[in-house]
Every structure is written in structure tokens, then in C-alpha cells.
Amino acid sequence: MAAVLTCGEAAALSHESAAALWGIRKPRGGAIDVSLPRSRDPRRRGIRVHRRRRFEAATHKGIPITSPSQTVIDLAAALGERPLERLIDEADKLDLVHPDELRRYAAGTGGVGASRVRALLDKRTFLLTDSELERRFVPIARAVGLSTPETRTRVNGYKVDFFFRAEGVVVETDGGRYHRTPGQQRRDRIRDHAHVLAGLTPIRFTHDQVAHEAAYVAEVLRGLSSEP
Length: 228
Description:
Blueprint: H1 2-6, E1 12-13, H2 15-22, E2 32-37, E3 47-52, E4 57-60, E5 63-66, H3 68-76, H4 81-93, H5 99-107, H6 112-124, H7 130-143, E6 150-155, E7 158-164, E8 169-174, H8 182-197, E9 201-206, H9 207-212, H10 214-225
Parallel strand pairs: 2-3, 8-9
Antiparallel strand pairs: 1-2, 4-5, 6-7, 7-8
Helix pairs in contact: 2-3, 3-4, 3-6, 5-6, 7-10
């Protein structure tokens, strides 16, 4: 609060300092980040000033601060994909911002950070069509020695994406929204439990893993094919 007040009217805590106050990133030592209108340029020891044309501000714990969406976008410019994904996960978990809302905000904001947020969220919500998914997934399974799966068939009363009958393995590929709802997660667990009780091994991959992390998918499937 002292840092913000020192910088004058329309100033707000931002970047790493804002992320720490929102609780979406661990506090880091050093200067305190404060954003303020571009027309002003105060110089204060121990404060890292970000002069900006515009930014979205809020109030948290009585302190003027950049909004959760603005804070994520500000940090995204300097983060790799995994740290950015963790940052968005934490903001979502704390109910600070929903990924859909963040995507809309990023779409109306320029800069490197907004572009990286859009790219990550677009990647995580990308859905393959059934035929495209099969075209990418089946060769991975075949390469590690699994039998040719039955696709989009019913097993234990549920329609499944891939059923490896010889190995007794059911593979589901989860897509849709960035985060599945609690209701969807509960239904998925019920489906998985039904397969386990029937003596099968259920396993889940995301569409993103099938599309972009084939080596990881192959590693997991290889472990299944080597089980006694």
C-alpha cells in the first residue's frame, strides 16, 4: 500500500507484486511493481515503475491492484508455457478468473503477453474431430505394440473412444473446455470405476497430449503393453 500511495493517483500494484497479493504466484524479493498512467514518471527507491497507456485495475485487501486477468497477461510475456499454465491454473482454482473470461480479455488486449495467453488457451481447448483423433492416436498405439483398437464403441454401457480388447484397456481422450466441471469429473470417475470393476484398465489422455505430446502418450501406452 505504501508503494502504491507513494506513486500517486491511479497507481496500482502490478506484475510479480500483484501476483503475490492475489496468491497466484509465490512472493519474490526485490523491488515492488507498480503500474501507473504513462503521463507520470515518479522515481522511488525500491519501486519498479511500469508506465502504461492503460490497464485494468481492481482493489484487493484495500490495495489498488491490477485485475487478475491483467496480472496474468502482464506476467505471460516473460513466462514459458508450463509456468504460465500453472499461473492460469492457480487463478482458476482460486476463482479469480475463469479461462473463458481470460481468453476474452486477452482477445481485446494487445502485446506479447496477451498473444501467449491466447495461444495457450486455444491449444488447451482445441478439439480434434473423431476421424482426426483416430488418425493421430491409432498409429501411436500400433507403434508400441498394442492391438488395433475398436473406436467409438460401447463398453460396460458407456461409449468409449478406444477399446483395446486384447489388452483389456479403455482409452478416453478428454477435450472441451480448459477445465472440466466437477459434474463432468464425477461422471468420468463413475465410468472409470465401471471399467475397473469389469477387470479393464481405463486411462485418459487430453486431446492436446494426443496432438502435441505423442512421445509421452507412447511412453504410457508402452508401459501398459509391458504389463503382465
